[in-house]
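Appendix C reproduces, verbatim, an entry submitted by the partner laboratory led by Prof. M.T., so that reviewers can inspect both the input and the predicted structure.
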Amino acid sequence: MSNIQEHVNTLVTRFVPGYRFLRLQELTIDKNNSLQTEIDSKSIKVLSWNIAKQNYNKTWVKDFLEIIDTYQPNLIFLQEFSLKLEADEWGKWLKKNWSFAPNFVDIHHQTYSGIFTAATISPITKQVITTQHHEPIVRTPKISLITEYLLSDQSTTLLTINSHLINFVDLNKFKIQLQELELALSTHRGPLIFSGDFNTWSRKRAVILNQVTTKLGLTPVVFAPHHQDKIKRFLLSPPLDHIFYREISVKKATAKVLDEICSSDHKPLLAEFTYTNTQKN
């Protein structure tokens, strides 16, 4: 082994020791703050945002509360959410039901990190899906959280999946994660929202994502060009963040990217949907 490689390995071991990031069993941390029992079928408001672990940052909290107050989302999908081991100290002001699915515990900083889904009602069902493969150096998996909700229409349920797709791995491992998610979603008959940070920083990754969402009958939320250009990407890559949907309709002019928000390196995505019986297959 070269001296340079030995030096790199020493640095990695020193600053990212193997015992620092502990992988977890598939579980959720949950909080119930709302007594509502259904989501209004005619107004399904969605916020999706990779918050880059900023949720203890005062600027981020201010931005988040302003978004909640202004747009009043029924469903909130956050990626790269951080939760300190004293979980009750965060989010006392968030009057929604929420579920947090951590993919690891950072022993050094005493925090969980993972996927956070909040809603105005409690989910009927929940499922956590952890990737078979792990990202290099920190050796942690990526995670997705599937939640199912009752709509006021009551003829069907809404299935949602909040995902963060694996990065820094070969294309086949990225494809395997998407195939696992496709299998989990394929049994649901009814409206569906698939949202998150898909790490589609290459054309090949974007093509694979399109193939899977097409199989599931999903349509991407289309943002106006001046909004689309603000979605997080690497150089000239496709956008990383997406919202896909099925058997619901996007309300006109509700798809927005909040470019003025700078408390994360990703911008919040917003869309409002409506569901009617005529949209059922």
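The radius of gyration is 19 Å. Additional entries are available on request from the coordinating office.
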